Amino acid sequence: MQEILGILKQKGIIDEADLEKASLVAEQKRENILKVMVEILSDKKNSILEEIARYYRIPYLELDHIKLDKDIVYTLPEDFARRHQIVPLFKIHNWLFVGMGPDLDFSILDEIRHEAKTEVKICVMDSSDVQEGIDRIYRAMSSAEKLVQRMGKIEDLGASIVHLVNLIIAQAVRDRASDIHIEPEPDKLRIRFRIDGVLHEIPSPPKSLESAIVSRIKVLSNLDIAETRLPQDGHFKVNVDGKEIDVRVSTLPTINGENVVLRILDTSNVLLGLEKLGFSEQSLNLFRQAISHPYGMILTTGPTGSGKTTTLYSALMELNTMDRHIVTIEDPVEYRLPLIRQIQVNPKAGLTFANGLRSILRHDPDIIMVGEIRDLETATIAVQSALTGHLVFSTLHTNDAPSAVTRLANMGLEPYLISASVICVMAQRLARRICPRCKTSYVPSGSIIKRFNLYNYVKSGQEIVLYKGEGCDFCKGTGYKDRIGIFEIMMLDEELKEMIVRETSVIELREKARQKGMKILFEDGLEKALQGITTLDEVTRVCEEIAEIKIPRRDISSEVRPYVPEEEKKEEVITSRNIPEGDEIDKYTKKIMNWISRRG
């Protein structure tokens, strides 16, 4: 291991700062440092993996360049592949080629040979490619085969419910869902996954399973099963494919029964670095310039779910070195970060943002993150901290960057304090990325080009081309895969600071910032649409409140259903109340397994 790290440093692929950052994250996550390094140093990923392959004299493969043979699934059992995080790729003569992440474990080579009953050749791959390959290959198995392998016939009702809930949570994690919504209806229990910011419905269980499913989640979360009249909050941990996932649970009594939302928190999503968030080169340089200040305040703004916390965590991880003391106060603490002291707000115990921030200042911090500025007291202490030698990060709920100044003033902060303390305000949104497997180009109509002034974003004489996803199995028919940030960064120079002191209007402040080169959210989104990263529809969806001209929204039918292959659509939904409850669980579990297998 040390020898490979030494080679990477010697060849200039990584430097001491990269090594220190990766070591901290690896220690916190208890993972192999090479695996972590590939995750967080995305711009150096290929070089690192190529060097690992060269060192061990094995191939380096990328999933996008491999045509997976779905029959290869029968060479290794799914539980074996998931347990060891290996993916069978293809066979050449009597050799089975198997993909492993950068944390190569050659000690299991004999086990793989024994399971596959053939000779094996190890290839190094990105860990995310390994996980995606496993999901794609084993989803192709028939539901009946998976049911036999993983379930058998479960007679015990409690065990069946446990298995069913585990299955739903595991599939949500594998689908990269941020939330699971369990929603009671008069005649059924609706379950939806929020994937890339949009809710997708999965097959509904019978209404008779509602109480058992909700009770199981309450047990996991250490909530009161008997209490159904009041909201409750809890959390639990679950291990999916070798990753420990935090799950926050909230229940809400409704007229049809208890609504349950499970928020899935995967730490690996916030430890990937600022480069992964979607900044343009110009925006990334501006933001890095802002966070390099020794003191002052940096604000991120946007609605709930716009990625503010992920951005701040990524910034903190970039600054997280042994010579800095970083303390955060949050409500709630969503992800645990290495070497950073994190405090959970607890109003019942008297721990608020304001008094927690006062206590933090007595602990000699260099950098402070305040989860949200909600009132004048918190705002005042945060500003005072920024003016007395601390770098302070926080968030506000405003639609754009200039409005953050007005929000602070409306709280009661003096304009001269805002002007003196704030370095940078960044507004952001999350837009869905176009699926790379089914992306197609098209020439927009003349009316669209004119309405959005698209000629302003391309070179003179250049044809305007936009992109969209046609929908495929890889993206589950949506045309989108993953999300990317859209950013608006307002750096406060002396002229803008003077305008704040004079209490200039938001409109004038925005216009002056644009004259100085600030891209508004909509402009950053349009550039990403023209680059083929996202679609024009997505940009207008997430930035519509500040778009000068909007594309009309399509009417959304109340009967929208998730994408499934044609044969799945013909399958009858199980709603019968005449069969025993145990059989209902069995049938619904088979239905879910069938749905999962047919999606890949």
Q: What layout of secondary structure does this protein have?
A:
Elements: H1 2-10, H2 16-29, H3 33-40, H4 45-56, H5 78-84, E1 86-92, E2 95-100, H6 109-116, E3 119-124, H7 127-139, H8 143-150, H9 157-174, E4 177-184, E5 189-195, E6 198-202, H10 210-220, E7 232-240, E8 243-254, E9 257-265, H11 281-291, E10 296-301, H12 308-319, E11 326-330, E12 341-344, H13 353-361, E13 367-370, H14 376-387, E14 391-396, H15 402-411, H16 415-421, E15 422-434, E16 439-442, H17 446-451, E17 466-469, E18 480-491, H18 494-501, H19 506-515, H20 521-530, H21 536-543, H22 566-569, H23 581-599
Helix pairs in contact: 2-3, 3-4, 8-23, 9-10, 9-23, 13-14, 14-16, 15-19, 16-18, 20-21
In brief:
This protein is of the alpha/beta class and 600 residues long.
Name the features.
alpha/beta, GMP Synthetase, Chain A, domain 3, globular, Rossmann fold, single chain, Beta-Lactamase, 7-stranded mixed β-sheet, 3 domains, 6-stranded antiparallel β-sheet, 600 residues
